[in-house]
Give the backbone structure.
Amino acid sequence: MELLQWFVWLVYPYTVAAVLGMGIVWQYDTRDQFDNMQRKSGMILNRIVKMLWLLTTLTGIGLIVFNGATGELAAMAGWMIGFLHFSPDMEILKHASLLLQIHVILLFTFLLFFSFTKYVSIVFKPIRLLKTFSFWKEKQSSHASWRRV
């Protein structure tokens, strides 16, 4: 049982994070590549992602509603910070409620399947918008300084 918990709360989340990172790096740049993949896999992947997103959202709402009784969200935030620092406290999730455990597994499974969709590029949209905005602002300032001369 200890090995299963070690796998579920340590190996699986880091594997999903690695796959998500690779999905972000290796995006479908052209519509042709995505259309070719879409014909091969059909709409099944998109349906799975939508179902996982719905289930993750519902369990997340359940956690927020029942947070007053359990107070687990603060503990979960501590686990997430430890996860990002590569030293998660597995005891937090071992002793968490069943709803929180299901939510975490659904969340990482959603991220795993999300990595293989065209929507993974959404992660970089805010960064691209900021770059476009800063480029436009620099262009405007250089154009304005050119007119003064």
